[in-house]
Amino acid sequence: MNKRYLDITDVGIEFDTNGKKFRALQKVNLQLDKGEFVSLIGHSGCGKSTVLNIVAGLYQATEGGVCLEGKEVSDPGPDRAVVFQNHSLMPWLSVYDNVALAVDQVFRKTMSKAERREWIEHNLRLVNMDHAVDKLPGEISGGMKQRVGIARCLAMQPKVLLMDEPFGALDALTRAQLQDSLMTIQAELGNTVIMITHDVDEAVLLSDRIVMMTNGPAATIGEVLPVELDRPRDRLALAEDQAFVHLRQQVLEFLYAKQAVRKPAEPAAVSPPQPPRLAAVQRSGDSDSPGDSNDFEAA
Amino acid sequence: MANTVLTGGLDHRLDQILERFKRGEWVKALVFPMLGMLAFLLVWQFSADRIDTSLGQFPGPVQVWEQVKGLAEEHMRERDREEAFYDRLEKRNAKKLAADPNAVIKERQYTGKPTFIDQIVTSLLTVAAGFVIANLVAIPLGIVCGLSAGFYKALNPIIQIFKPVSPLAWLPLVTMVVSATYSSPDPLFDKSFLNSAITVALCCLWPTLINTIVGVTGIDRDLVNVSRVMALSPMVHVRKIVIPAAIPMIFTGLRLSLATGWMVLIAAEMLAQNPGLGKFVWDEFQNGSSSSLGRIMVAVLAIGLIGFMLDKFMLSLQRKVSWDKNALLR
């Protein structure tokens, strides 16, 4: 297998906010195999989303670059589809039309109208949303919206599927359902996936590798943890599996001992390792893209 | 639940009204507005009795109602006269043709005085023309400004300078320019019509322009990113994402724009002598008969009522166009 399907090399980015330079990322190196599922985990504000946005082409790296199948990518494109945290469906388009917008754009030249229709319906079936094709996003639940968001991305047949905390805004039960769906789909289609998450269990359950990031500014990759659990994975069986528990422990240790969030006046060396505060940090929202303030402002 | 709201929009509204009626909310819905109206009429009548002008007493509600009837009768009479005129014309032509099949038939236009209703129609046409001209410019320009920060920065000073300019300042310039550039032996539009319409357009351009810009710049960044990831072409991006997202703000602009246009129109017509409501008010003022003030008051009420109906029309249009059928529009 080609070890360098997706190659992120020495990527760094510096944001310029009102003349002040802010270095968000430094020397990020990551290689993905085809069909690999990698999770990015780290504290809020460490630049996980920034990495994803650079791969997507939504941000331009200040140095370094991203190669996909040996070709450098710097602009956004449907070969690197993004599932956003808050589904980002067009509220004025029906479920079907939301997927159709993507499909018509990507397969306009290669598929006939009937083929495209079949393809849209196929992708909605894949995420179990074929029962609500004519509904508007406002009329379906948050979990359903995220399913449609995933269908929209899958329908573009991306080379890499980028997921920015796809299940972060959902309740625990819906999240578990969607994780299972995602595992099934990934087993079937063999997508290459980079997923950002705050949820340690989610990372261990879904990933082939967990990439743990250090705290910003100038964040980079701290450790990479291979997850060698057999697939298909079953969440109930894994809950008591020693290997699973051990992996989970390692991620927690990285997050709360090695990369404990420092209190401002306290130097890191003095700060005692904090006990795992599972509930508090797992669900904290991550709306931290330093680039937001850098974007186009309306006067 | 969501289904009932969607499928039976009208039924649902009707149900709501009936429901309110049952709960006795009609007291609030009907009685209070009526009380307010009654109080207004009383105050009006009371103060009108105490104002004497050189054209007689200021008209109260009763006198104004008389004028409404008078104007309606005038309209009917004028219509009858017009019909009689065309009748006579037709008969005369028929007779001519019977006597000599090769006779040249003269088509004459009836040239009676425009009635109050005719003037309302003229005003509506003028404001519609100005409104359409303005928004054919404002919406595309607003979208471009909203999408491009540079374009916006270039245009913003111009918008800020021309936005507060009164129609009365524009009118002389518009008149001179139209006189100089629009001259044909058989003009499609009257010059006075063009003057008024263009003046209206110059004044009702701004609300739509500004609101469209705000609407377009305010699009959810994530939706823009989705569009970038899909690599939508600029045209598809505008059609499928920018316009639907900005529709609520565009409509806010359109409603403000139409209200401004209607207000400006009256002033423009007064000065441009376009045969509409503004000219009606001016002529009555110059006329100075004992019924003039009453007739002007009828025009005032008609202007208000039509303005209100225009806004209601825009609101129902927005309901029809908007994708968010549950949005509270007011």
Please, could you describe this protein's structure?
The complex is a heterodimer of chains A (299) and B (330). The longest helix of chain A is centred in the middle third of the chain and has 18 residues, at 172-189. Chain A has 299 residues and is of the alpha/beta class. Chain A is built from nine helices and ten strands. In chain A, the strands form two sheets. Chain A has a six-stranded mixed β-sheet, with helices on both faces. Chain A has a domain at 35-58 and 75-79 and 158-294: Rossmann fold (3-Layer(aba) Sandwich), CATH 3.40.50.300. Chain A has helices spanning 48-56, 95-107, 113-126, 142-155, 172-189, 200-206, 235-238, 242-258, 278-282, and strands at residues 6-17, 20-32, 37-41, 63-68, 71-73, 80-83, 160-164, 192-197, 209-213, 221-226. Chain B has 330 residues and is mainly α. Chain B has a domain at 114-321: Orthogonal Bundle (MetI-like fold). Chain B is built from twelve helices and two strands, in the order H-H-H-E-E-H-H-H-H-H-H-H-H-H. Chain B has helices spanning 2-7, 9-22, 26-48, 61-99, 116-147, 149-162, 167-181, 191-217, 221-230, 234-272, 277-287, 292-321; strands spanning 52-53, 56-57. Chain B has a two-stranded antiparallel ribbon. In chain B, strand 1 (52-53) and strand 2 form a beta hairpin. In chain B, helix 7 crosses helix 8, helix 8 packs antiparallel against helix 10 (234-272) and helix 11 runs antiparallel to helix 12 (292-321). The two termini of chain B are 23 Å apart. Mean pLDDT of chain B is 87; it is low at 1-7. The chains are: A alpha/beta (299), B mainly alpha (330). The interface between A and B is medium-sized, with 31 and 31 residues.
